[in-house]
Every structure is written in C-alpha cells, then in structure tokens.
Amino acid sequence: MWTLKKLRQQDDCRSLRDLLEDFTGPAVLSAEQKDHLAACPECKSVADDMSMSRAIFRDVPASATLPGPWFAPRVMAAIAARESELRQSFEAWAAVPRFAARLTWISALALLLAGGWLYESPKVAQTSVTQTGVESIFDSPQSQAPDDVLPSMEMAQ
Fold it and tell me: Is residue 138 part of a domain?
C-alpha cells in the first residue's frame, strides 16, 4: 500500500513538473495540483526556480537570444578545425608504433652482427699480436735460470 501511494506521488510530481515547464500562469493549475504544489517541497522548489528563470529571461531582449546568421557556419568551421588538429595529432602518433617495430628489428640485427663479429675478433687479434712482436703478460718467455743471474751479479760488484 505504501509503495502504491509513493508511486502515485511520483506520478503527480512528474506531471506537475511537466506542466510547470509550459507554465503560463496560475490559472492553468487545477486545485489538486495547487494542493500538491503546496504540500511537496521538491515541486515547490522546482516551481520557484522556474519562475525565477522566467523573470530573469523576461528582461533579456528577444534579439539577444537569437544567434546571428553566421553562427552555425562558424561553429561548424571551429569543429572541423579541431577535428583536423586531432586527426593530424593522431596520425603523427600512429607512425610511432611502426617506427618502433622497424627500430626493434634493426637493433636486433645490429646486435646479432656485432655479437658475431666480437665472437670472431679475439682469434684474429691474438694472431696479429704475436706476429708484431708485442708480448703480453701471459705469453712471456721463460725467465733466465737462477744460475745465470748469480754470475752477472758477482761481476757487477
């Protein structure tokens, strides 16, 4: 029972608000609607807001509310310009994934070639060092025998 009463009140509120949108004067409202308007605080607030809005717009001249003859073309041109800017921005960023994919493949190929070259280069470098006569720490010839060192030290004294 309570839900039926609440649904009926919501229907009354909805019909009264629809009527208030086209409100021209208090003569349009029936006695039941006037009672509902006095009893319902939400509908009273809506009615006050609408009457205040009408009072504000009553003072505005009618020619100020009408758009000029070039209003629609200017708005459409502004929309088209904005869409063009967004499309160009999107096209610029759409190229980034393609560039990134190509860069990835080129980098992978460069790493593969550099790795192969580095894998083979120590063999080539080692043979060239021994041919030029430069000795490394690890490939040094055997040092002199200790017997050879002692006579040379005696002669020096």
Answer: no
